[in-house]
Write a structure and sequence with these properties.
single chain; mainly alpha
Length: about 100
């Protein structure tokens, strides 16, 4: 979420790092999930990004290309049996009773 919001606002790693008072490497590790962000930094990071601190726990939205969107739309327009055949072909199995997120 940090990277998504930072890029959306046109900020560089250095911009966020300076506002929070940490190194650019630290912000990069937070973005990539290589290091957990300390809870006490949560409000500072949220303020630097101009977002609600609660949003920092949210997953970043997935941005699809127009081609990816067309593929997904085509898949979802298929009858259930054909969708199942494609999942089998790709080695994807859906747990019984659970719906896929795509």
């Amino acid at each position: 979420m940090i990277r998504y919001e930072r890029r959306k606002k046109g900020l560089h790693l250095a911009d966020v790092a300076q506002r929070v008072g940490v190194s650019t490497a630290t912000v990069s590790r937070w973005e990539r999930g290589r290091e957990p962000m300390p809870f006490e930094r949560r409000e500072e990071v949220a303020e630097a990004l101009g977002i609600d601190p609660a949003r920092l726990g949210d997953p970043a939205p997935v941005e699809l290309t127009s081609e990816d969107r067309r593929v997904l739309d085509g898949y979802h327009s298929l009858p259930p049996g054909e969708r199942a055949a494609i999942r089998d072909l790709l080695g994807l199995r859906r747990a019984a009773g659970r719906r896929a997120s795509c």
